[in-house]
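>> received
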Amino acid sequence: MEQALAFLASTGFASLSWGNVIMMVIGIVFITLAIKKDYEPLLLVPIGFGILVGNIPHLASMSLGVYDKNSVLYYIYFGVSQGIFPPLIFLGIGAMTDFSTMLSNPKLVLLGAAAQVGIFLTLLGALFLGFDPKAAGAIGIIGGADGPTAIFLSAKLAPHLLGAIAIAAYSYMALVPVIQPPIMRLLTTKKERLIRMKPPREVSRKEKIIFPIVAFLICALIAPGALPLVGMLMFGNLLKESGVTERLANSARNAMIDIVTILLGFSVGASTQASHFLTKQSILIFALGAFSFCVATAGGVLFAKFMNLFSSEENKINPLVGAAGVSAVPDSARVVQMVGQQEDPGNFLLMHAMAPNVAGVIGSAIAAGVLWSVLAG
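>> returned
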């Protein structure tokens, strides 16, 4: 009987709390959204299942969780907590990204920069709510809608908030098709949504090869803190565009990014133990994340409208394209295409939207580097 009681005490049922149950429900919701609604399944399925794994109670003497030293999950989570996985994901993103549309119409880069206003307004909001400057900087980066960047910066500035910030960032990335369209329609008129933009010019191979080198040098010299992210992004792009390292580019954009995405998503999910995650701070982070994402979307759209005040009729920008300035690649660009075609089925905005979309990736990485440089001291 004593052995039977000891066994019962060692099961997860004995220590299961309402917090664990709530987190498990959230994990199942993530998996359901991924499978039924096709919302970022490559992210939400690993994260959702990781949440289930992370909320199975176990004896304190058993090293099983991501916060238990020398456990298997601890070592997998090491790539998140030390900021190793995000640069590797940026390498893969660089190897699959075509910067041609951005190079063919450089003024669209400004839309990617304008969308980063969400980061800095959220930082101010977090400071107002009582977060310290480092935590506020880490929370603000959610506005860039870039999960790897959010993880990288929070690992450096606010590791105690890493789980909540990562889940918030990836949740809003997955909800891009839900959050952005109402804001885009609210801030634009039907006439503006019907604007057809000039086809992008053809970009030479030489331009494509020179760009990652020059862009890296400029960005890294402006914000040295962005070096790991921008460096890997541009290195991956050079592998793609050089034409002589196709095997390496293929490995980076396929096998490697898939492996890292699995490990990152699963371990981030496993870090959301109820005792660490269900706090007042986490709720505030989710609220600030939603605010920052909405502001970033609005910032891009409104800046496109502002640019149109100084553009000739033939060079006007469809303001919907500004919403792609958040760096949720390529989902924001697809949403722009979807909303544009609801007004005019013959209007193809996807390629135009990819310009501010990839510019937003660079912009959020630079913003993270600036925040790290300023707040790390």
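>> The chain has a mean pLDDT of 91.
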